[in-house]
Specification:
alpha+beta, four-stranded mixed beta sheet, 1 helix, elongated
Amino acid sequence: MNEIVFLIEEDPDGGYTARALGESIFTQADEIETLGEMVGDAVQCHFPDDQNLPKIILKF
């Protein structure tokens, strides 16, 4: 896999959520700036082997 796409939405209860399209990865944060870091951490946890780590992470 070369890329992974995340759908970012405002949470009705406050904060933001990010859900990967095509993978079972979900994360959330109170601030949009923090969400980017959380997405990176979630991808690292989902793909612990750097060889399989996507090269591109798109956030929409």
